[in-house]
């Protein structure tokens, strides 16, 4: 299903409301969370909604999608830091309920295996929130990642490193590798929401809309899932057929 709104604000409110509805319907829900610029206004909305509704978060569990390798948890661009800043430090969520891949693990392969296992042990993801890279990556599953992969180490593509360079003071500081949930883990979520905003996502969203399932476009794996909502603003949807606007497909 495609949901297209005019503004980023509307996209963020809709997405945050869907997250809140999931928590209200199932207080022990397991949420898969994403980072990046797209999610900043989503989390700002969610924090506001949670403050107003005084929801009990004590039984909630979260697993983040990915983390850079080699950045300390206190590094301003680590995803652990990002999540603290935008969400976790602003909510009364038990710290032991919050999970991110460990980009500083001594044995990263063991850490990857343990991460996918921990999600399964928690009962699986009820809702996976995703952004999308300008090259179609989801999590950090770059083009041509095997769709059967579980949590794994990935070499970031030059396009992704360039895109994310905007968050670092110098391009050379952008890590070259990351840990990411695999496509297989993502597809096992009960429900998936992919959010895309801004004109830089227009070309890849059109490619995703028109194309088939293809490992060259990681987000196309979502076409194999039965419960996916793709939420866009008018800029990200600019190259989609007009009849999709405001409606479902
Ligand atoms: C982040 C993640 C990535 C981002 C994607 C878009 O946890 O998994 O797939 O969602 O790179 O990033 P932004 O939102 O910064 O354009």
What distinguishing features does this structure have?
alpha/beta; globular; 249 residues; 7 helices; three-stranded antiparallel sheet; 31% helix; seven-stranded parallel sheet; Rossmann fold
Structure ligands: fructose -6-phosphate
Q: For the largest sheet, list the strands in their spatial order.
A: 1-10-9-6-2-3-5
Averaged pLDDT: 95
Q: What is the CATH topology classification name?
A: Rossmann fold
Helix count from the secondary structure assignment: 7
The structural class is alpha/beta
Quick take:
With 249 residues, this protein is an alpha/beta fold. It is 31% helix and 16% strand. The chain has one domain: Rossmann fold (3-Layer(aba) Sandwich).
Describe the fold and architecture.
The protein has 249 residues and is of the alpha/beta class. It has one domain: Rossmann fold (3-Layer(aba) Sandwich). The chain is built from seven helices and ten strands. It has helices at residues 8-25, 39-53, 79-86, 108-121, 158-164, 183-187, 202-210; strands at residues 2-5, 30-33, 61-64, 66-68, 98-99, 127-130, 152-155, 177-180, 191-196, 228-233. The strands form two sheets. It has a seven-stranded parallel sheet with strand order 1-10-9-6-2-3-5, covered by helices on one side. A three-stranded antiparallel sheet has the order 4-8-7, covered by helices on one side. The radius of gyration is 17 Å and the shape is globular. The N and C termini lie close together (5 Å). Residues 245-249 have low confidence and may be disordered. Fructose -6-phosphate (F6R) binds at residues 34-38, 65-66, 131-133, 137-140.
């Amino acid at each position: 299903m495609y949901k297209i709104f005019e503004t980023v604000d509307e996209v963020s409110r809709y997405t945050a409301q869907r997250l809140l509805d999931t928590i209200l319907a199932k207080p022990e829900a397991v949420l898969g969370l994403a980072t990046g610029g797209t999610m900043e206004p989503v989390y700002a909305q969610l924090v506001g909604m949670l403050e107003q509704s005084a929801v009990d978060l004590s039984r909630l569990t979260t697993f983040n999608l990915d983390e850079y390798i080699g950045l300390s948890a206190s590094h301003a661009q680590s995803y652990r830091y990002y999540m603290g800043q935008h969400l976790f430090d602003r909510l009364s969520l038990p710290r032991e309920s919050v999970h991110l891949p460990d980009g500083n693990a001594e044995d990263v392969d063991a850490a990857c295996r343990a991460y996918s296992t921990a999600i399964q042990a928690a009962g699986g993801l009820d809702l996976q929130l995703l952004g999308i890279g300008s090259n179609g990556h989801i999590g950090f599953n770059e083009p041509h990642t095997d769709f059967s992969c579980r949590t794994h180490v990935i070499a970031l593509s030059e396009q992704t490193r360039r895109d994310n360079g905007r968050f670092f003071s110098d391009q050379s500081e952008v890590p070259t590798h990351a840990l990411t949930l695999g496509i297989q883990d993502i597809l096992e979520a009960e429900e998936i929401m992919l959010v895309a905003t801004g004109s830089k996502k227009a070309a890849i969203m059109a490619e995703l809309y028109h194309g088939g399932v293809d490992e060259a476009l990681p987000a196309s794996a979502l076409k194999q899932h039965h419960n996916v909502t793709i939420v866009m603003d008018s800029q990200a949807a600019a190259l989609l057929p007009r009849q999709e606007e405001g409606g479902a497909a």
